[in-house]
Amino acid sequence: xxxxxxxxxxxxxxxxKIIEQHGKLLxxxxxxxxxxxxxxGRSRTKDRGVSLDGMTWYDxxxxxxxxxxxxxxxxxxxxxxxxxxDLCVAALEAGKPVVTANKALLAxxxxxxxxxxxxxxxxxxxxxxxxGGIPIVxxxxxxxxxxxISRVYGILNxxxxxxxxEMEETGxxxxxxxxxxxxxxxxEADPSFDVDGVDAAHKLAILTSLAFGTPVDFDSVxxxxxxxxxxxxxxxAQEFGYRIRLLGVARRTEQGxxxxxxxxxxxxxxxxxxxSGVFNAVVAEGDFVDSTVYEGRGAGEGPTASAVMADVVDxxxxxxxxxxxxxxxxxxxxxxxxxxEHVGCYxxxxxxxxxxxxxxxISAVFRDEEISIESLLQRGRSPEEAVSVVxxxxxxxxxxxxxxxxxxxxxxxxxxxxxxxxxxKL
Length: 426
Ligand SMILES: NC(=O)C1=CN([C@@H]2O[C@H](COP(=O)(O)OP(=O)(O)OC[C@H]3O[C@@H](n4cnc5c(N)ncnc54)[C@H](OP(=O)(O)O)[C@@H]3O)[C@@H](O)[C@H]2O)C=CC1
Ligand SMILES: N[C@@H](CCO)C(=O)O
Description:
Domain ACT: 347-423
Protein name: Homoserine dehydrogenase
Helix content: 25-40%
Structural class: alpha/beta
Organism: Sneathiella chinensis
Keywords: Amino-acid biosynthesis, Methionine biosynthesis, NADP, Oxidoreductase, Threonine biosynthesis
CATH topology of the largest domain: Dihydrodipicolinate Reductase, domain 2
Family: Belongs to the homoserine dehydrogenase family.
Bound molecules: NADPH dihydro-nicotinamide-adenine-dinucleotide phosphate, L-homoserine
Number of helices: 13
CATH class of the largest domain: Alpha Beta
Order of helices and strands: EHHEEEHEHEHEHHHHEHEEEEHEHEEEHE
CATH architecture of the largest domain: 2-Layer Sandwich
Shape: elongated
Largest sheet: 11 strands, mixed
Number of domains: 3
Number of strands: 17
Distance between the termini: 44 Å
Strand content: 15-25%
CATH superfamily of the largest domain: Dihydrodipicolinate Reductase, domain 2
């Protein structure tokens, strides 16, 4: 199996190391020998800590697709457009199997690429694109193939989980912790994709398609990142018995499919709340299997390269499935439910001036919107300065809560925009 590798960064270098270190193991497991015969990167002279001797260098990665010595193409560059997409299209059209770690590409163009793969009768594989080293794509596509899935959710971004747990454990500063995550090779080329929830949404869109047999529909994922999660929210969460995690949730209801990514309060005694650092976890619920949980490192050189190589091994051994578990013409377009329709409990933190009647005014708004309050506490007392009023609601439709928070924000005694975090029902 002669491999062409496009992209020699964190993941590409990891792949080269596995092929170098585990040549015999891979060959014993597949009956094939693996050799990287061609590579592409931006800089030809950069020292990558691995030998590129004997490999053909391409300045234009797309040329890997037409190299007659290349049997399989690994796209490890990234980005939903440009050279990454062009290379995948060219390789599939040339009848060459493609393995990619690129969730942005699959979230935006997944269905069209799957169609192209089917048309050319070649595999398109992407285990590394979702939850790093966890074999969740294989689990969803093959292990759970006998089930109707009702919900799949989890921690899908290692960078955000690393930031949230470091903030919780060390009280450290957001920017400094993000810099650590970048140095460790966890973050995307543009880290705003991580912290603004876009990367988790890319992965969720792929999981939704695998779970429910729908075309990949990234545009209808509701996305909210972690920038506004404050040390105060983390401390209040602890007090109420929760931790804050960025979750991606895809759920099938009678009305359609919910797809949302946002920070969540998760009860401390749940499996998800105990997933720390760069680890990811995915929970998939099927009608026959019930709840299944998968956990592992969600980013970084070794885990991601391990997932890339799992695809390479499957393809070399002739184990091939339709890209999203079913052929594209069997996919069903199921309506997506807007987040305003979401019904759940909410954590709300209000910043108000501590004057007589404030709580009465807040209560009146909640009464008018028929929102019932489970608990409420006020911290700090200073007539001149704003204090925090924190409350947990019973179940309510999100649209009603949003109306209530808009009315409260307009009060004279409001000092800042109310903050709301959804409470996960796990
Ligand atoms: N890092 C991780 O933990 C994970 C990453 N992924 C995905 O894997 C992919 C790669 O990520 P990662 O390795 O972290 O990214 P890096 O930024 O570390 O590496 C990207 C590589 O692509 C090369 N490159 C950029 N533009 C071009 C181009 N036009 N032509 C040829 N090569 C180019 C760069 O070259 P040069 O080195 O010369 O600049 C670099 O070697 C992305 O899709 C990412 O989302 C998925 C799961 C986990
Ligand atoms: N930037 C991603 C890499 C893994 O997909 C993360 O932090 O999870």
